[in-house]
Amino acid sequence: MSGLELTVIPFKSSAEVLSNMLSGEIQLGFENFTPIMGNIKSNSIKVIAIGSSKRFIGLPLIPTIAESGLPNYEATSWNGISVPIKTPLSVIQRLNKSIGLALETPSVKTKMLELGVTPRPSTPEEMQEWITTDIKKWGLIIDNAKIEKQ
Fold first, then answer.
1. pLDDT, tens digit, for every residue of 25-73?
2. Does pTM surpass 0.70?
3. Residue 137, Ramachandran bin (φ over 0: left; ψ between -120 and 50: alpha; else beta)
4. Contact 36/15 with Cβ under 8 angstroms?
5. Is 84 exposed, middle or buried (0-12, 13-18, 19+ CB in 10 A)?
6. φ and ψ of 46, to 5 deg
7. What is the 8-class DSSP label of residue 24?
8. Which residues, in sequence order, are CB contacts of 104 under 8 Å at separation 6+?
9. Would you call 53 exposed, middle or buried from its count of C-beta atoms within 10 A (0-12, 13-18, 19+)?
């Protein structure tokens, strides 16, 4: 996408990425905010850009990769809550409502932002659409890059 030649090192954990970055074994890494937030706040590592399409409200001075010169770049991680397929709709709706209310409380919002997470309550249908869209997006990227499926 950028023409940049990099060697990909598949670390098994965020801790490995972080320790190798701090020791100077690697010069850069792509990592989620949560495991490195303490290092960001203590200035032991510097974030130069983020992969989301919008700046993170918890670190508003850090530009997106798209703002930094790669238009349309977006690579983010997300978390969702799943239930067994035969869970009654009434239970799903009750869980969704309770989780949505929890995500709107100031203390939960604050804690999530401290951890580098943007709370985004949604409906089960919106979450399913997100998953479907992500599978299509990354499937195309994998196919176009000729990455061998495993």
1. 999 999 988 899 999 999 999 999 999 999 999 899 999 999 999 998 9
2. yes
3. alpha
4. no
5. exposed
6. -120, 125
7. T
8. 119, 121
9. middle
Task: Give the span between the Cα atoms of 134 and 139, in whole angstroms.
Answer: 8
Q: What is the pLDDT of residue 63?
A: 97
Locus of tokens 């209310």: 101
Please give the DSSP secondary-structure letter assigned to residue 13.
S
Task: Write down how long the chain is.
Answer: 150
Instruction: Give the other-Cβ count within 10 Å of 100's Cβ.
Output: 13
In angstroms, the CA 32 to CA 117 distance is: 9
Secondary structure letter of residue 149 according to DSSP: P
Domains along the sequence of the chain with CATH: 1-76 (3.40.190.10), 78-150 (no CATH)
Cα(149)–Cα(13) distance, rounded to whole angstroms?
21
Q: How confident is the model over 89-125, as pLDDT tens digits?
A: 999 999 999 999 999 999 999 999 988 899 999 999 9
Per-residue CA distances from 1 to 52, 74, 79, 148 (Å): 16, 12, 26, 18
